[in-house]
Amino acid sequence: MMEYSASSVKFLLWHVETKETAKLLQKNSFEEIRKMVLEDNIFQQKSRERAQSEYSCIKKRLQSLPDELIKKLIKADVQTSKIITFIACMTTDRLLFELMFEVYRNKVHFGEEYISDADLNIFMNNKRDQSEKFAGFTDATVKKLKQNYSKYMLEAGFITGKSSDKKIAHPYIDPEVRDILFRNQMEKYYYALTGEM
Questions:
Q1: pLDDT (tens digit per residue) in 57-104
Q2: Residue closest to 104 by CA, chosen among 66, 140, 154, 62
Q3: Read out DSSP for 109-166?
Q4: How far is CA 11 from each of CA 31, 45, 81, rounded to the nearest angstrom?
């Protein structure tokens, strides 16, 4: 099982860049795309280090997806491609997946309208109790993870509003995305997003 990681404090959803990389991947190798990122600055980052970090993250996310989901990401509408990008984030970030599976899914399943800061705090405190690695994260790191995950959820359409009580949204999940996830033994990601048990 994946270790908990705090690397997401410096990552974004990067939906546009993920979709662009997926398109390039149809005709180029990862190594060729890496050259474009570093030499042509196709991600338009201020520093080479930042571009390399973003590229490594996006590469890892795309490598975690089945090919048919990458193809769907390329041709899907904006909302669906954001959801696929969000799934890629969950597949490479254990904490984000567990937040969606243990908190968001339960809220949706029981028809609750909001995720509160208190919900996020309880979740994070439970993880501290369960994992020595997670217990080693500083308060500042945990706060930043909460902020980043909230941004991911907002951008991908799973919550709305900027306040401490985040209203749960129910974005449309394309049936083709559902089918691809089920075909590839990835149904837990579908359940995490839909509240199904």
A1: 999 999 999 999 999 999 999 999 999 999 999 999 999 999 999 999
A2: 154
A3: HTT--EE-HHHHHHHHHHHHHH-HHHHTS-HHHHHHHHHHHHHHHHHHTSEE-SSSSE
A4: 21, 13, 18
